[in-house]
C-alpha cells in the first residue's frame, strides 16, 4: 500500500507520518523519489523485512510525480502517447533495472519492426555540420560492415574490448566483497577504475590505440548524445559507458514505472508527493528533525537522494562532508510533432533522400572542440521517436514525434530549417493542432554533471562514520544513469541495514575477540551462530548449520566482514555450495590475517 499525499493541505501532522509503524520501528526519511530514492526505499524495505527489523520508510518528493529526471510527457496531452523527457534508455547490464522490470512484471517497449525499417530510413547517421560521416541501416550486410572495417580498421573491436573490461570492473561493485561500499573513491581505486575516470575520453582512447577518426566520428557522437560533451571534456569511464549499448530497452508507458513500482513494493514505504523538505537539523541524540512543508518530523536515518545543490535544502549544522556544488549540463530538450519528415536539404542530402531516424552529431576534423558547446552542428542530436495519430487535427492525421537535444532553445526558425516547411511562432509554441508543428514540449534540465576527469568523489555518509545522514548523488560524477543512481540507493540501503544488524548484535549476547587486520583496524572475529529456533537449517557436508536469513559472514582480504548480497535469493543448493567454499576461504583469510598480525 502506498499512501500518497498530493498536496500541502493533505500532509497531516507529524504523527501521521509514522502512523503504520511499530513503536520501535526505525524511522527513515528519504528525500527524493527519483531512481536513487525509490531504489533506496525498495531495497531497505526488503533488507529490513529479511532481518525482521520493523521499519517505517517515508519518501518525500517535491514534484507531483515519481521519477525525478526519469519522466514522460503526453503528446497532445493524450495519455495514450507518453514520451520520455529524461532518462530514456537502459541496457542489459543494468541489473537493478532489468531485474525490477522482471519482478514488477513491466513490459518492455517492442524493438521489433523499428520505425526506421517501417519507414525505409537509415537508422543512424552521424552529422558533422557539413556532411554525414557515417550512415548505417539495420539491414546492413557484410559488404557495409567490410566498408566500416576499411574505414576504421580494428578500432571498433578494440573499443568493444576496452568497454567490456571497464564495464566488467564496474560490475564488481554489485557483488560481495565490494558491495556495499562506504567510500566511492576508495572503491573505484581498488577496482582500478580511477585510472579511467582520471583522464579524458580523448586521452584514454589515444592511450589505447583507438584511431582519431573512430574516436571523433563514432565515440564522440555517442558522448555528445548521452552527456552533451565532446571527448576532450568527459572522463574515460563515462566515455566507455556511452559505448555499452547492448540490449538497449525502455519500459512501455515510461521508465518511471520502475520507480513507482519500487515505492509500491512494501507496506513499510509511504510516499508523499508535492512535499518539499527545507531543513534537515541534527539533534543532540543523533536523530534528525526534518522541516517538511509546514510541519516537522524526526527520523533515525535520512537519505538525501538528489544532488544537494538543487534541493533548496539547509543542513544544520553543516555536515562533516558537505557535497561540493559541481557544474551540471544545462540541456534543452525539445519534443515536437509534425506530419513532415526531416528535410534532406537541412542535411545536404539530395531531394527525396531519407534523413536517418537518429541523427547524432560530431565535429569536423578541423574544428577545435569547446567545452559545453555543440560546435558547427548546432545541436547534439535530433531523432524521430514515434509515429502517432494526431486526433486533435481536423481531419486527424498521422504524425512523427521528434526529440532534439541542444544548448539553445529550438526556435520557429530552426524548426522551419529542419522540416523544410514554414513553422509559425504559434506552431512553434504548439498552439495549432493543424500546424506544420502540431505539438511542442520544451524542458530545460540540469541533466547530468559535466563529467570532467576526476579521482575524488563525494562521501556516502555526510556525517562521517557512525552518522545517519546518507547521500546517493555522489555517484553521478562517476557515472550518471538511472541504473547507477539505483545502485547507489541500494548501496546505502545495505549499509543502513548492516548498521542496524551490527548494532543489534553489538548490544546482545556475544563478546567477540578482536584482532588487528592488515589495515590496522580492530576487526571482530566471526560471531558464533545465534541460537534461533526459527532460523533455517542447512545441511553442509553432513553437518547441520543454522543461519539467519542474512546468511554467513564473509571475511574480506583486509579483515573486514561483510555479507553475501543475494543470499536470500539463492537456492538451497547454491547456499550449500557457497557455504562450503566460503568456510574454506574464511579460514584461509583468517589465518593469513593472524599471520600478518604476528609478524607486526
Ligand atoms: C534529458 C535526459 C536524458 C537522460 N538519458 C538517460 C538515459 O537514456 N539513460 C539513463 O540511464 N539515464 C539518463 N539520464 C540520466 C538519469 O535520468 C538520471 O541519472 C537519474 O534519473 C537520476 O536519478 P536520481 O534519483 O539520482 O535523481 P533525480 O531523478 O534528480 O531525483 C531526485 C528527486 O529529488 C527531488 N527533490 C530534490 N530536492 C528535494 C527536496 N528538498 N524535497 C523533496 N524532494 C526533493 C526532486 O524533485 C527529484 O524528483 C538522462 C537525464 C536527462 C535529464
From TrEMBL:
Signal peptide range: 1-21
GO biological process, one term: prenylated protein catabolic process
Prenylcysteine lyase domain residues: 138-503
Gene3D superfamilies, per database record: FAD/NAD(P)-binding domain
Gene Ontology MF terms in the entry: prenylcysteine oxidase activity
Keywords carried by this UniProt record: FAD, Flavoprotein, Glycoprotein, Oxidoreductase, Signal
InterPro entries xrefs: FAD/NAD-bd_sf, Prenylcys_lyase, Prenylcysteine_Oxase1
Cofactor list: FAD
Start and end residues of each stretch annotated as Disordered: 504-551
Pfam family of the protein (one): Prenylcys_lyase
PANTHER family: FARNESYLCYSTEINE LYASE, PRENYLCYSTEINE LYASE DOMAIN-CONTAINING PROTEIN
The family this protein is said to belong to: Belongs to the prenylcysteine oxidase family.
Name of this protein: Prenylcysteine lyase domain-containing protein
Amino acid at each position: 500500500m502506498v499512501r500518497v499525499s498530493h498536496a500541502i493541505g493533505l500532509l497531516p501532522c507529524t504523527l501521521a507520518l509514522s502512523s503504520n509503524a511499530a513503536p520501535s520501528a526505525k524511522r527513515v526519511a528519504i528525500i527524493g523519489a527519483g531512481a536513487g530514492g525509490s531504489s533506496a526505499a525498495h531495497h531497505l524495505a526488503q533488507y529490513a523485512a529479511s532481518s525482521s527489523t520493523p521499519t517505517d520508510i517515508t519518501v518525500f518528493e517535491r514534484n507531483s510525480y515519481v521519477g525525478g529526471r526519469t519522466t514522460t510527457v503526453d503528446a497532445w496531452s493524450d495519455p495514450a502517447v507518453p514520451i520520455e523527457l529524461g532518462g530514456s534508455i537502459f541496457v542489459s547490464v543494468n541489473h537493478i533495472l532489468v531485474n525490477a522490470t522482471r519482478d514488477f512484471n513491466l513490459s518492455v517497449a517492442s524493438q521489433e519492426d523499428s520505425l526506421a525499417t517501417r519507414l525505409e530510413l537509415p537508422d543512424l547517421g552521424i552529422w558533422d555540420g557539413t556532411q554525414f560521416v557515417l550512415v548505417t541501416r539495420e539491414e546492413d550486410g557484410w559488404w557495409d560492415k567490410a566498408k566500416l572495417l576499411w574505414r576504421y580498421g580494428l578500432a571498433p573491436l578494440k573499443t568493444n574490448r576496452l568497454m567490456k573490461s571497464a564495464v566488467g570492473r564496474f560490475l564488481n561493485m554489485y557483488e560481495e566483497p565490494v558491495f556495499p561500499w562506504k567510500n566511492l573513491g576508495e572503491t573505484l581505486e581498488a577496482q582500478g577504475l580511477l585510472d579511467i575516470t582520471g583522464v579524458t575520453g580523448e586521452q584514454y582512447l589515444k592511450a589505447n590505440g583507438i584511431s582519431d577518426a573512430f574516436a571523433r566520428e563514432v565515440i564522440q557522437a555517442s558522448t555528445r548524445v548521452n552527456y552533451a560533451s565532446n571527448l576532450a571534456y568527459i572522463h574515460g569511464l563515462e566515455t566507455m559507458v556511452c559505448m555499452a549499448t547492448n540490449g538497449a530497452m525502455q519500459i512501455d508507458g515510461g521508465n518511471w514505472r520502475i520507480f513507482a513500482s519500487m515505492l509500491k513494493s512494501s507496506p513499510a514505504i509511504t510516499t508523499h508527493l508535492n512535499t518539499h523538505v527545507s531543513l534537515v537539523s541534527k539533534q543532540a541524540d543523533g536523530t534528525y528533525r526534518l522541516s517538511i512543508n509546514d510541519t516537522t518530523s524526526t527520523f533515525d536515518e535520512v537519505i538525501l537522494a538528489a544532488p544537494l545543490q538543487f534541493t533548496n535544502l539547509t543542513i544544520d549544522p553543516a555536515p562533516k562532508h558537505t557535497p561540493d556544488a559541481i557544474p551540471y549540463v544545462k540541456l534543452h530538450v525539445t519534443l515536437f510533432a509534425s506530419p513532415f519528415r526531416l528535410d534532406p536539404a537541412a542535411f545536404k542530402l539530395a531531394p527525396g533522400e531519407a534523413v536517418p531516424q537518429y541523427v547524432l552529431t560530431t565535429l569536423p576534423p578541423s574544428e577545435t572542440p569547446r567545452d559545453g558547446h555543440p560546435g558547427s552542428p548546432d545541436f547534439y542530436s535530433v531523432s524521430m521517436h514515434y509515429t502517432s495519430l494526431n486526433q486533435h487535427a481536423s481531419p486527424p492525421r498521422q504524425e512523427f514525434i521528434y526529440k532534439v537535444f541542444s544548448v539553445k532553445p529550438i526556435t520557429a526558425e530552426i524548426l522551419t530549417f529542419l522540416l523544410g516547411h514554414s513553422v509559425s511562432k504559434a506552431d512553434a509554441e504548439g498552439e495549432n493542432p493543424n500546424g506544420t508543428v502540431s505539438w511542442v514540449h520544451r524542458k530545460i534540465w540540469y541533466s547530468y554533471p559535466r563529467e570532467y576527469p576526476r579521482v575524488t568523489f563525494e562521501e556516502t555518509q555526510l556525517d562521517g562514520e557512525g552518522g545517519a545522514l546518507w547521500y546517493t548523488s555522489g555517484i553521478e560524477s562517476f557515472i550518471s544513469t538511472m541504473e547507477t543512481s539505483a545502485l547507489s540507493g541500494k548501496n546505502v540501503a545495505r549499509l543502513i541495514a548492516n548498521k542496524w544488524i551490527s548494532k543489534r548484535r553489538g548490544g546482545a549476547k556475544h563478546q567477540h575477540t578482536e584482532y588487528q587486520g592488515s589495515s590496522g583496524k580492530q576487526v571482530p572475529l566471526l560471531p558464533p551462530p545465534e541460537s534461533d529456533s526459527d532460523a533455517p537449517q542447512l545441511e553442509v557436508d553432513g553437518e547441520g548449520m543454522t543461519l539467519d536469513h542474512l546468511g554467513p559472514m564473509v571475511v574480506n582480504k583486509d579483515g573486514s566482514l561483510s555479507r553475501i548480497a543475494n543470499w536470500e535469493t539463492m537456492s538451497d543448493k547454491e547456499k550449500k555450495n557457497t557455504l562450503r567454499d566460503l568456510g574454506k576461504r574464511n579460514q584461509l583469510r583468517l589465518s593469513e590475517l593472524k599471520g600478518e598480525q604476528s609478524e607486526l
